[in-house]
Specification:
396 residues, alpha/beta, eight-stranded mixed beta sheet, six-stranded mixed beta sheet, 11 helices, 21 strands, binds 8-demethyl-8-dimethylamino-flavin-adenine-dinucleotide, binds P-hydroxybenzoic acid
């Protein structure tokens, strides 16, 4: 049995765990990451693609934004398509010149893994049977098997950054947490295609056949989504059917056509909103998807994970520099103020743009009026733009 010790033990090498380790390293705090999957798996997992302005700035300020600055695509607006028209939300005008950056989550992960390894940090990949306990005492521990041997990692604090199906949240005694959840009656079928994006900026489409989204990863790779039934089987969606549906929902009747190309990857994602409170139990702190999930319509999941660990790193820094625990105690409340605003925005975008089975013609007209409002009123547009580029980090 190998016994190890570190200051902060981190479960999970997604954006939350990796960025936390990076921030801690910059302030001289030692951390070890324990990850269930292989390095290759986490570096190739296709997920989010849109970074808020503040997250972009944070990556640059902390020295890991070089490749993002070169390869990321700066977007100064998005398009909303509804009622046969396409209208633009202009961030330059409505959000004080801020922008979002289209740069894949797995590229952020690659940059963070390279930075960790370059700095001599420890990431234990392919850890099996990971357990965490002892949160109520002074020395919580992460136990796992690696290289055929059982190990114990003793820590001052543990960060549960192990995503929505991780073990950290479920290691907290029942009754200590309260969960809030909304499940949506639809899912997204997403494809990655070798095809030049047919629009320079994202298009979010509201259509009576259901929502569709045009996004991208590079000037030659498109990322596209269509709303489908939550129990839909991928086998019912051959590539031709996906393209046909995308053409109708994103451009139908306008003469404008999507550029089609080979489908490189496809998958179905269920949609839900979920928050657990508080995000702390003794010396365990939950961050990112381990604590909350948003439907992807607002492009917020990865951004929120980064915002959480920024607060956690500052609280841990305050503890190690001064011995004070007030920021650690305020961690959950500080994060939840942002999380609930982002939950509201993601729910609102989802509600405005999707077809719900229970919708009546009244609801449909109301959705169109809302889209007309946000694309014709400065105030309406500004509220969407301000949230989409990201609310300011307003913690002390
Ligand atoms: P992650 O990325 O899920 O990382 C958790 C890590 O923990 C590991 N793990 C364990 N390790 C050890 N022991 C265990 N028992 C473990 N169990 C799990 C996992 O292998 C993994 O490496 O969580 P994190 O770091 O909190 O990051 C959250 C984001 O990944 C997520 O919110 C976003 O991907 C959501 N999301 C989007 N977010 C955005 O900000 N902008 C977007 O445009 C956006 N689009 C999306 C999205 C998510 C999507 N899907 C597939 C869910 C689009 C889609 C389709
Ligand atoms: C993506 O590019 O994967 C993406 C973009 C915007 C969203 C969700 C996903 O709202």
């Amino acid at each position: 049995m190998g016994k190890m010790r570190t200051q902060v033990g981190i479960v999970g090498a997604g954006p939350a765990g990796l960025f936390l380790a990076h921030l801690l390293h910059l302030t001289g705090i030692e951390a070890v990451i324990v990850e269930a999957k292989s390095r290759r798996y986490v570096e190739e997992r296709i997920r989010a693609g849109v970074l808020e302005q503040g997250v972009r700035d944070l990556l640059v300020e902390t020295g890991i934004g070089e490749r993002m600055k070169l390869e990321g695509l700066l977007h100064h607006g998005i398009n909303l398509r509804f009622g046969g028209e396409k209208r633009r939300i202009d961030f330059s005008d409505l959000a004080d010149g801020q922008a979002v950056t289209v740069y894949s989550q797995h590229e952020v992960v690659k940059d963070l893994v390279a930075a960790r390894i370059g700095a001599g940090g420890t990431i234990i990949f392919e850890a099996e049977d990971v357990r965490a306990d002892g949160f109520e005492g002074q020395h919580p521990v992460i136990r796992f098997t690696a290289g055929g041997e059982r190990h114990e990692l003793f820590c001052d604090y543990i960060a549960g950054c192990d995503g929505s199906h991780g073990i950290c949240r479920s290691s907290i005694p029942e009754g200590a947490l309260t969960s809030f959840e909304r499940v949506y009656p639809f899912a997204w079928l997403g494809i990655l295609a070798r095809a030049a994006p047919a629009s320079e900026e994202l298009i979010y489409a509201q259509h009576e056949r259901g929502f569709a989204l045009l996004s991208m990863r590079s000037p030659t790779i498109s990322r596209l989504y269509v709303q489908v039934d939550p129990h839909e089987d991928l086998a019912n969606w051959p590539d031709d059917r996906i393209w046909e549906e995308l053409q109708i929902r994103l451009g139908g009747g306008t003469g404008w056509q999507l550029t089609e190309g080979p489908v490189l990857q496809k998958g179905i994602t269920a949609m839900r909103s979920f928050v657990t409170e508080p995000m702390q139990y003794g010396r365990l702190f939950l961050a990112g998807d381990a604590a909350h999930i948003v439907p992807p319509t607002g492009a917020k999941g990865m951004n929120l994970a980064i915002a959480d660990v920024r607060v956690l790193a500052r609280a841990l820094q305050s503890f190690y520099e001064t011995g004070r625990t007030d920021r650690l105690e305020a961690y959950s409340a500080t994060c939840l103020r942002r999380i609930w605003k982002v939950q509201r925005f993601s729910w609102w975008m989802t509600s405005m743009l999707h077809h719900f089975p229970e919708h009546t013609p009244f609801d449909h007209r109301r959705q169109l009026a809302e889209l007309d409002y946000v694309t014709s009123s400065r105030v309406g547009g500004a509220t969407l733009a301000e949230n989409y580029v990201g609310l300011p980090f307003d913690d002390p």
